[in-house]
Amino acid sequence: MGQEITLPQFRRWLLAYARRIIQEEDYLTELDAAIGDADHGANMRRGMVKVLERLQAPDDNCNDIGSLLRSVAMIMISSVGGAAGPLYGTFFLRAAAVANQHRSVTLPELARMFRTGLEGIQQRGKAVLEDKTMVDAIQPAVEALEAAAEANQSLAVALASARQAAKLGMEHTVELVARKGRASYLGPRSVGFQDPGATSAYYLFETAAETLATPAENGSEQGQKSTSQEPGDP
Ligand SMILES: [Mg+2]
User: Fold this and answer.
1) Is 228 part of any domain?
2) What separation in Å is there between the alpha carbon of 113 and the centre of ligand 1?
3) SS3 assignment for the chain
4) Is 224 among the domain residues?
5) Rounded to the nearest whole angstrom, what is the distance from the C-alpha of residue 183 to the centroid of ligand 1?
6) How many angstroms is it from 26 CA to the middle of ligand 1?
7) How far is the centre of ligand 1, averaged over its atoms, from the C-alpha of 21 (Å)?
8) Can you give the pTM of this predicted structure?
9) Ligand 1 centre distance from Cα of residue 37 (Å)
């Protein structure tokens, strides 16, 4: 029995992710302007504004982790343009199918959700490691989570290690020749620029490390089985 990640924590994660993307819109645009068509920032922001609206609505009807992730997936698919919308949508849909009606998940379950999400992205986008895509951030992060789960690490350690792996993977895209998407038309001229998709994907793990390892404010919510300390405990 390890620590559990609850529905309110997932909600907090997705809100933090949406806010981070909105905050970094100009940076994502700048990255995509160098090797793509400069729309990644605007595309992602459009989706994330809708995610914020949805998750802040008092009646969002997301009563389990699966339905929460599914609602985010549908927003990404319908409102984020370019390749990113369907790819992120697939990631969240596949993860939602694993989480299903659970209201909390363990670290090994989280690793399985993210692994399944990654597989969905790879099936859909046909990208492998070192193609200079979002896979370069997500795959090392998933592997780090799996290794941490295997080693019975705490959630905080596991998520910190996933964040670090995603960061290194994102930074490594600078050195890579793009083999997928619009950037691949540049061939060797794509070297020297960080991939925008790997960057927006890195924020998934950055915000996960900030939100999923500590109980949400309303951590005493009915149904929570967390063994971790409640906020406000003496
Ligand atoms: Mg683009």
Assistant:
1) no
2) 27
3) CCCEEEHHHHHHHHHHHHHHHHHCHHHHHHHHHHHCCCCHHHHHHHHHHHHHHHHHCCCCCCCCHHHHHHHHHHHHHHHCCCCHHHHHHHHHHHHHHHHCCCCEEEHHHHHHHHHHHHHHHHHHHCCCCCCCCCHHHHHHHHHHHHHHHHCCCCHHHHHHHHHHHHHHHHHHHHHCCCCCCHHHHHHHHHCCCCCHHHHHHHHHHHHHHHHCCCCCCCCCCCCCCCCCCCCCCC
4) no
5) 9
6) 13
7) 15
8) 0.91
9) 4
Q: Is residue 108 part of a domain?
A: yes
CA of 143 to the centre of ligand 1 (A): 27
CATH number at residue 94: 1.25.40.340
CA of 38 to the centre of ligand 1 (A): 5
What does the pLDDT read at residue 66?
98
Any domain includes 145: yes
Domain extent, residue 17, equals: 4-211
Total number of domains in the chain:
1
39 alpha carbon to ligand 1 midpoint, in Å? Answer: 5
CA of 83 to the centre of ligand 1 (A): 8
The residue ranges of the chain whose pLDDT is under 70 are 1, 217-234
